[in-house]
Amino acid sequence: MQQLLNPFAQKYPEAVDSTLSSQGVSIQFNPYGPFAGHYLAIGGSDGVVEIWDVETRGMIRLLEGHVKAVGGLSWSRNNRYLLSSSLDATAIIWDLSILTHPYLHPKTPATLPSSSSKASSSSPRLQTIRFDAPVSNAVFHPRNSKIVLATLTCGEVVLVDLRNGSRNILEDVVKNPDEPDEDMERKKTAMACATFSPCGSRIYAGTTNGMLLVIDPVTRYVLQRVKVANSAIKQLRFDASGQNIITSASDRALRLLSVDPLTSALTPLHRFQDLVNRTPWHAIGFSGDGEYVMGGAGHKMAHNVFIWDRESTVLIKVLEGPKEPLINCDWHPTRPVIASIATSGDVHIWQTSSPDNWAAFAPGFEELEENVEYDEREDEFDIEDETDLARRKNLEEDIEIDVLTLPTDSYPLPPKPPIHLPHQYLTSEETKLESDKHIESLRKVVNWADENPDDDTWEGFWLSLDLEEELGEDEE
Amino acid sequence: MAIPISPPNGINPNPEAGPSSPKYQLSQTLTAHRRAVTALRFSNDGKTLLSAGADGWLHFWDPETGEHVRGFRAHKTGINDISISPDSLYIATASDDCTSLVYYLNPPPSTINFTSSGNDNTNELNEEEDVKDDSNGTGHTKENEPLRILKGHTAPVLSISFSPKSNLLVTGSFDESAIIWDLKKGKILKNLPAHADPIWCVNFDNEGAMVLTASLDGLIRLWDVSSGQCLKTLDNDTNSPVSFASFTPSPYFLLSSTLSSTLRIYNIHTSKVLKTIQSPNLYISEKFPCPSIIFAKPNLSSSSVDVVEDGDDANQEKMDIDVDGKNEDRNSKVTNHKDKQDAWIITGSENGKLIIWDLQSKSVIQVLQSHNSTVVAVAVHPSGRIIASGSLEPEKAIKLWRI
After folding, report:
1. What pLDDT sits at residue A187?
2. Which of A333, B2, B175, B294 minimizes the number of CB atoms within 10 Å of its CB?
3. Structural domain boundaries of chain A?
4. How many helical (H) and strand (E) elements, i.e. helices and strands, does chain B have?
């Protein structure tokens, strides 16, 4: 499919294509799998979580459970579970394979009895996690939805392991290499945001004093500590490959850093700023291919999304929308589509316009920019003997083709942790030892995360419809 | 129960495919339709065989026993095609009355609890439902009321297909257009002004990103579902009307049948024909479209057909089966690595035969013979172990074949 699309088509959106009427404050496309970007989860200011079908622009699920605004959303690795976190101090895990209709049981690999123990349940609300303070954001571990990382508004980051019920508040603690029993330093730091790296091997947390911490999720020791800004880091987003981070700080600057997948060493690359208006940023992100950086501007009177080229750091487009200010936005994982929320709660979908490709309507036609002299092939008008033709065709058709195997690389999947040594680290003995240490630690994290896995094992998961369910949509 | 048939030695033109490879045997003949059997489908969970007829009836069968489960008259006019949603929840029809209807595959038992709300819902969506209800009494009970009525075509609907995520439907019609429907809203999402002649076949690819339309005008067009744009057009060297086309499980190829008794495998990207399959005198398709189906050679290593036997293995296999043709699962990846499966193609012929070819070598594997009128409906069970075929009048019978 991707190959049939115009390779030179514009890779960032142009204009608002449609508007979804909602009460949203947070949005998230499902990032992985064959149906990546087919669903848009919207967390409402009234506590309702909605799931919209991006193809039909229609709401397909309404999840009620929170009583205050839902500010954080996270899809599990294969989209079966959705984690919503709210200012009501709870996070809820929803099982999207379950329809609210008590007698409708979709029959897909996700709902086979062997893979699901909760098949008889008729409530999509799988688990509610309660916290001591309002939750500003919560994310699943990319490899196991039984591990949840929650950021609370009181400045705490809590790692919740639902497999053994453990909860750990992350602290800025560095392991003392000499005396392993004693911690070298223990600082009281308030953390403003935290997330897992896309491969799930590290936790990245931003503090209120501008530090970016890299934390090992198993030992919970800080591995790296980088001063990024002089003010609080409000937001932190990875690109799909996990090799770039964008941070948003309260000094109104966005900072782009590159991440070494093995050592998690951070290198600051660039600082994006709106020098004229000194715009604060309400949302940040990368395009699906990581080529562009997106900043949702917090203007009071305008709805703007800034798009920069990541490589050249040039501002290439400012999307200008309706009057109501923007509060959040997310970039589609595979297509040049952005969803943004206005203060009214409406969600705008930005797209490229697609001009008709007339050449596609006739076989063998090609659209040209200018006149080209046609060179006929040597044998173009030769008349071939019929038996020869048949024999030649038969020979040509003798090739092996595999019509049954599905390709596995055609859709986005989370990156894998570098637990096998990349070549560039094999230069000298010293670096080899060093990287062996990193790999060992990464392996431990992977083993920890993969232990006691969740039921979200089917990569092709999608949401079934309940045609009798009323979702309270306006009848147009 | 099984009706023995004479061994196919006499008619097998490819003896080297030989006695070693197992053969499908006729196991049952099912009769219920009063006119031609026009379409057959197995549900993805393998638990239901659905048949549709020119008499407007839908019949539900148990594929294991061949038992008739239920049936009702969905349309007053003939049904041309049916589709079952990949999650085995819903079915959709394509009818001569220019509409398509969506029903439950297995109506929930508590329709009483849901009738009030359900009724309001459908009435709101479509007021014409009352008219339809009054005029249609045959075999119609409350539970057989359509969930959605799709009105948009101006001529008989010839083909219908669910998207892989069950959220869209595509229909192809005699009115030369194809429509992509939003199933939840029951409304038109995209209208594809597709061809210069009736569209006989429509299908989605495995990712639900593309739709194909195949027409009497000899062309197959590929469309981008999200933008409604035409992506590509494929023709055939004889300009024969295309009676059927579908994407293969691998997204790089598609299969077509034309009314010149020819099957072709195309490479979608280069538009090149990679395989041309013909079997003169054996396979005849010149007037009536019949689907052709690519399926993996059934795995008979556990020689017993009984699925109940060893629980674990059977379950594992079911996983693979359900996933096959949709999306890949870790299990099937493993099996694919272990041994590459042979791809078989089956289609029906106007001489009442069904022919199975090996796709790679283009040689005939088996000829199934027992219908005495044109075969226009074929379905292969997700396990590959059961084949259902249906024929036109005067025979109008469904036959089940097992391996």
Report:
1. 62
2. B2
3. 19-351
4. 4, 28
User: What's the pLDDT at B144?
Assistant: 75
Cβ A465–B166 below 8 Å, yes or no?
Answer: yes
Assess whether pLDDT exceeds 70 at residue A473: no
Q: Which has the closest alpha carbon to B73: B128, B132, B144?
A: B144
A57-71, A136-150, B77-91, B310-324, range with the lowest pLDDT: B310-324
pLDDT at B142: 60
The kind and range of the H/E element at B292 are: strand B292-296
3-state secondary structure of A243: coil
Overall average pLDDT of the A385-389 stretch: 81
Q: Do A460 and B360 touch (CB under 8 A)?
A: no
Mark yes or no for CB contact B229/A407 under 8 Å: no
What is the structure's pLDDT at A274? 79
- How open is the CA angle A391-A397-A400, to the nearest 5 degrees? 145
Spatial CA neighbour of A195 closest among A139, A247, A131, A265: A139
| Locus of tokens 């949509």 | A473
CATH topology for A19-351 is: Methylamine Dehydrogenase; Chain H (2.130.10)
Q: Given an 8 Å threshold on Cβ–Cβ distance, is B184 in contact with A53?
A: yes
Pairing outcome for strands B364-369 and B353-358: antiparallel
pLDDT per residue over A199-237, tens digit each? 888 899 999 888 899 998 888 888 888 888 888 899 999
Which regions of A188-337 does DSSP assign to beta strands (E)? 191-196, 203-207, 211-215, 222-227, 233-238, 244-249, 253-259, 266-273, 281-286, 292-297, 304-309, 315-320, 326-331
Using CB atoms within 10 Å of the CB of residue A330, give its burial: 0 to 12 exposed, 13 to 18 middle, 19+ buried: buried
Which of A221, A233, A137 is closest to A172 using CA atoms?
A: A221
* Bridge partners of residue B292, in order along the sequence: B347
Closest CA to A44 of A281, A464, A474, A341: A341
B137 close to A (CB below 8 A): no
Which chain A positions have a beta carbon within 8 Å of B329's beta carbon?
Answer: 109, 457-460
For residue B316, the chain A residue with the least C-alpha distance is: A114
Find the range with the poorest average confidence among A287-291, A310-314, A462-466, B123-127.
Answer: B123-127
DSSP string spanning A114-180?
A: TT-S-TT---SEEEEEE-SS-EEEEEEETTEEEEEEEEETTS-EEEEETTTTEEEE--EEEPPSS-T
Residues of chain B falling short of pLDDT 50: 1-19, 111-137, 303-338
Characterise A25 by phi-psi region: left (phi > 0), alpha (psi -120 to 50), beta (else).
Answer: alpha
Q: What's the pLDDT at A93?
A: 93
CA distances from A474 to A22, B95, B124, B168, B185 (A): 11, 30, 12, 20, 11
**Cβ neighbours of B165 in A, within 8 Å:** 35, 38, 462-463
Question: How far is residue B394's CA from residue B397's CA, in Å, rounded to a whole number?
Answer: 9
Task: Supply A365's token pair.
Answer: 């036609």
CB contact, 8 Å: B220 with chain A?
Answer: no
Q: Cβ of B234 under 8 Å from any chain A Cβ?
A: yes
| A167, A160 Cβ separation under 8 angstroms | yes
The predicted model gives A241-259 an average pLDDT of: 90
The CATH code of domain B152-276 reads 2.130.10.10
Give the model's pLDDT for residue A461. 87
Is B363 within 8 Å of B357 (Cβ atoms)?
Answer: yes
Judged by CB atoms closer than 8 Å, whether chains meet at A107 and B88 is answered as: yes
Amino acid identity at B361: S
Q: What are phi and psi of B171, to 5 degrees?
A: -125, 145
Write the single-letter amino acid at A306: F
A192: β partners:
none
Task: Give the 3-state secondary structure percentages of chain A, helix then strand then coil, rounded to 5.
Answer: 10, 35, 55
pLDDT at site A423? 64
The helix/strand count (H/E) of chain A reads as 2, 30
